[in-house]
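Here is the promised in-class demo. Please do not try to memorize the tokens; focus on the logic of going from shape to residues.
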């Protein structure tokens, strides 16, 4: 893994970004690994290893059994994460292809070999009856059926690998054209125009070259490099682990799997049985409670872990987020906060600072620390917030929300040229996957006006929407989510749309129930005809099938009981 990382660093030609640490677990054999494998239909998956990326830590897990080699699968996901952390946003097919290209990494003495043929991908493509046309390949995203369906995903991944291999090692004249194509896409040029300008042909021509390369070629070139020149790290420090530490580490591994939280809790509880004051076990259990939305318990456990001298950066991040969430859930005026609100803000910052002291490469703590400076009053220094977000952006170059938050603080400072450049790099005020695309005010008369940070704060808007939902004001919540959708882009926008649609269904259901109850009240008040008419109208118009059926049945029952009416 260290040698692979050295090769990837050379590819980047600069210091690598590491948004979260990577923990590697090696089990003696498949039997030892099995209890920690992901579950499929309640049974352990048939993996000899897996890699699970996370915002707080990455987990590479594999068996050292003699008859299995899980490294390509682990490498693929690790490389994918490395590319996303170290390069500006790239097309999905390109990220997937690059990960496949480098996942066949091998070492031979002093030599590193990359870009070797993937026998599995080659076989899948040669046996496939139909390939994905290039114009479709470039359009596939994570919600596309080709990506979500397991069987179709194999062909997608294989074809992405083959395309990168062909353009990188199969045709020297095409190699610079690939870089040109990616560059034009990054500049915002439409895909079709960028393809024609970069490759000088249409999709069908390049597609024909690619299929011929895979089906007819018998010799594939790869890259070689000397480790004596790459100079990977060779020093290592070995420290024996206590039984309690092993329980906590294994609990952490299980906790990284959403479906294994109960198993993770057993490990943390076992560690607490051995040492009731174990900061590691308290912190791990605190994170489980946080993920389970049991905020009071999470706050208690994480605070105890911090007070017990925890050295886990995630504990202090969790404490900081809890303080920040508490502050964001209440009305707040940056110009005149209460003493309690200011104390909460400073407590959040102190915890987040401790998090980055313990783990400088933990990007999310830098993000949240920087964002707290959006709550400073006019004229106050935001330099510390700018510094934190600059650190976050180095580690998360593809995160537009971080770039926009940084632009907002530069604008607050008066550096509009830097702010404008950042907005442009994030794809403008309305694109990308940012969490708050409107945090950068639009220009007015050549001067950017100051807008209340709290009004532009995504977190606060979400808290207000949740407050509306808790108060039962679903229509108002839908309106508020619609407003947030209009100023948000990327994956965040997709999630908001999904949540908005769910709220609309809930609101429609509540309205239907209210109409049903109103009709029953009419009947009980003696207006039998009005009640029956209202119920039949509801049965014909209500989108909720269950409520519609109930209204129809009740209308028929009422008609049968009404004076002078026969049962219908």
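The designed amino acids, position by position:
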């Amino acid at each position: 893994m260290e040698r692979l990382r050295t090769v990837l660093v050379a590819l980047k030609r600069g210091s690598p970004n590491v948004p979260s640490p990577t923990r590697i677990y090696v089990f003696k054999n498949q039997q030892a690994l099995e209890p920690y494998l992901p579950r499929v239909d309640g049974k352990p998956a048939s993996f000899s290893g897996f890699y699970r990326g996370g915002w707080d830590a990455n987990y590479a897990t594999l068996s050292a059994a003699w008859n299995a080699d899980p490294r390509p699968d682990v490498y693929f996901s690790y490389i994918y994460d490395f590319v996303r952390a170290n390069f500006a946003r790239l097309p999905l097919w390109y990220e997937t292809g690059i990960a496949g290209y480098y996942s066949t990494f091998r070492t031979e003495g002093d030599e590193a070999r990359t870009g070797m043929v993937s026998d599995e991908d080659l076989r899948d493509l040669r046996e496939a009856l139909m390939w994905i046309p290039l114009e479709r390949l470039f359009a596939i995203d994570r919600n596309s059926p080709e990506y979500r369906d397991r069987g179709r995903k194999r062909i997608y991944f294989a074809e992405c690998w083959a395309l990168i291999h062909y353009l990188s090692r199969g045709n020297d004249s095409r190699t610079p054209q690939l870089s040109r194509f990616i560059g034009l896409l990054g500049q915002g040029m439409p895909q079709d125009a960028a393809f024609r300008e970069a490759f000088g042909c249409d999709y069908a021509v390049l597609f024909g070259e690619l299929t011929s390369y895979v089906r007819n070629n018998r010799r594939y070139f790869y890259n070689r490099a000397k480790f004596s020149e790459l100079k990977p790290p060779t020093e290592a420090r070995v420290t024996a682990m206590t039984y309690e530490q092993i329980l906590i580490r294994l609990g952490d591994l299980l906790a990284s799997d959403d479906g294994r939280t109960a198993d993770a809790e057993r490990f943390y509880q076992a560690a607490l049985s051995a040492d009731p004051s174990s900061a590691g076990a308290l912190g791990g259990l605190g994170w489980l409670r946080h993920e389970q939305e049991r905020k009071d318990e999470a706050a208690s456990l994480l605070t105890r872990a911090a007070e017990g001298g925890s050295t886990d950066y995630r504990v202090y991040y969790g404490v900081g987020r809890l303080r920040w969430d508490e502050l964001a859930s209440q009305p707040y005026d940056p110009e005149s906060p209460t003493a309690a609100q200011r104390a909460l803000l400073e407590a959040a910052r102190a915890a987040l600072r401790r998090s980055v002291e313990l783990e400088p490469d933990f990007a999310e703590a830098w993000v949240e620390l920087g964002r707290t400076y959006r709550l400073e009053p006019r004229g106050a220094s935001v330099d510390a917030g700018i510094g934190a977000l600059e650190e976050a952006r180095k580690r998360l170059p593809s995160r537009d929300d971080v770039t926009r938050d940084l632009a907002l603080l530069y604008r607050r400072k008066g550096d509009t040229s830097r702010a404008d450049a950042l907005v442009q790099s994030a794809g403008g005020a309305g694109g990308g996957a940012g969490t708050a695309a409107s945090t950068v005010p639009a220009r007015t008369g050549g001067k950017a006006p100051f807008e209340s940070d709290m009004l532009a704060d995504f977190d606060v808007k979400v808290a207000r929407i949740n407050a509306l939902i808790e108060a039962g004001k679903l229509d108002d919540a839908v309106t508020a989510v619609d407003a947030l959708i209009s100023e948000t882009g990327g994956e965040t926008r997709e999630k908001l749309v999904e949540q908005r649609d769910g709220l609309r269904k809930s609101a429609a259901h509540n309205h239907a129930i209210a109409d049903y109850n109103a009709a029953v009240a009419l009947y009980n008040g003696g207006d039998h005809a009005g009640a029956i008419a209202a119920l039949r109208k509801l049965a014909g118009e209500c989108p909720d099938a269950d409520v519609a059926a109930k209204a129809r049945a009740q209308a028929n029952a009422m008609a049968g009981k009404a004076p002078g009416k026969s049962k219908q």
